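User: Show me a protein chain along with its predicted structure.
Assistant: Here is one chain, sequence first, then structure tokens.
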Amino acid sequence: FCDLLNGGGKPEYIVIEISSFQLETIRDFKPLVSIILNVTEDHLDRYANMQEYAMAKAKVFKNQGPEELLILNAEDRFTSIMTSMAGCKKAFFSAYREIDGYYYDEGRFMKKTAAGKDELFDTRGMSLMGRHNYENVLSAYMAAEFIGLDMGKAVKTIKEFKGLHHRIEFVGEVRGIKCYDDSKGTNVDAVLKAMGTFSEGLALILGGREKGTDFTPIYNALTPNIKAIIALGENREKIAGIFGGKIAVHKAASMEEAVNKGLAVTGISVLLLSPACASFDLFKNYAHRGDEFKKYVQKAAGK
């Protein structure tokens, strides 16, 4: 981002993702549109509690004024307090229910204002899977609309977008089992969303280096379609201890072992890598972890 500006680049708009770590030290940063998709448990090895983490994220709108827009998730528990803190325009989205704002409803995206309801577009032809992606789509649509883009082109782009690597990315099929790389799922909330994307029989590869992780929400969200957990890496013994009384747990010391044990689980049609942990116990980063998963899936498929 800095290199682009220092190099004389003058794009009309720049879209950047800013971490809470970076927001801690801002002074003049003032986006035209800010989006907080959610505030869910993460980085509690850095922050004293969730409130401190939320306040770090809230700095994204600290300098915004009446001409700028803050986009918030109506389903997030910190949204009401952030709404009261912000001195800019506010707009809200939900992927789960009808609200005053933008929402998803049975195969279509809607907008509700005082003037009534309007259908924005339907989901036919979209490649993105899962309610969390409906949240992503709604917030991106709202930002595009606010800055005055051609919304016909925006919808076309949304429908043609295939998703990013390591985010519930389909990487191959082995003996009828479809394999998905969600290595970017480094916190519990991301894993819950990935799990909720599938209703068929599933084996979940979980584990790595922790960040003060509380696995209780995953434990509570285990549904009958989830047949086994493959506990990978540094905290595999802890994961086995937490989940072993509720579900079959197979420990793995390497990604190859995790893939092979996952593919051996009976009654599944999906193998999902969504670890809820950092990757630095066995891998360079989350992308390296995802690439290794893909490599051993392809090896198992004989490619």
